Fold this sequence. Notes:
Elements: E1 15-20, E2 26-30, E3 33-37, H1 39-45, H2 47-54, E4 63-64, E5 67-72, H3 76-87, H4 99-112, H5 115-128, H6 133-139, H7 153-163, H8 170-180, H9 183-188, H10 198-216, H11 224-231, H12 240-257, H13 272-291, H14 293-296
Parallel strand pairs: 1-3, 2-5
Antiparallel strand pairs: 2-3, 4-5
Helix pairs in contact: 1-2, 3-4, 4-5, 7-8, 8-10
Protein name: BTB domain-containing protein
Domain BTB: 22-95
Pfam families: BTB
Amino acid sequence: MSLSDSSATEGVPIVRSDIWYSDGSVVLQAQNTQWRVHWSLLGQHSAFFRDMQALPQPPDQPTVEGCPVVELHDDVADVHRLLRVLYSPTIAPQKVIRFDVVAALIRLGRKYEFRALLNSAVQRITFENPTTLKEYDAREPSFPGNFIGYRGIEYDMLALARENNIMTALPCAYYRVLRCSTHKELFDGLGGATFLAPADQRQCNLSREKLIMAQMGCLGSLGWLWDWDSHGTPPDCKTPDMCSRVRAEAARGYHNSVEVRALESTDTGSCSVCFSRIKNGVRQARLMMWAHLPTYCDLPRWKELKNDL
């Protein structure tokens, strides 16, 4: 049985993985690595392997220690992570785990129909990238809450969601990348192998321009800067000179940095009257910006986004 068009690399010795059960009934092989595992366990979790086991074996089927060899055209590390989870199912929903484990479960879970593992892994991605502003605000202080954090996890999470059609996570995932990246980093990456795929790089740059324009608009999260110009300080402002100075300094800072801050709260240091006015405006602006976030990313509206798994 073979799921690829080629066998192991010619001339490279076969490596036996530490996942090797003497009573195993099938040998999986990816590149030059083999795992001896159990048809029964694979079939229990995967409709794909359950159906494969039922197929008649060809007479020239290669075997190892009497077990049929099934060649997989997948990354060795991904296969190993999947099998580790199958044989050691200790990943509780509240447990913080490595992102690459979840990525492997999603990639192979989709391909080989490990539905329970796939759904559990997707839930971790959608937890970190929710569809409501309330959930986003709850997640933000402890992001990432489901994974062991590292620099560039936002880039990897975006790529995983896009490549596997986890559509409901994409608006937030794009925003997280834009919020944590300079314009230069969107093009050049974060160093090493951490960079955006061309499709994500293009979309991030398009979305960045849209979000900056929207947040600076009169109804955007930074619209209070221009509203101040139109209406001046409130008549009951306690410290007009100070509040005007605070506003001017904030305007200069935002113009100089040109950062995506569409969903950020505002702490201006103004008097209580002006701060209350600004806070109410920003609250409404954030709701509006969130409602339109998918369209800023060239995606369907929130209610139309569906995962295709």
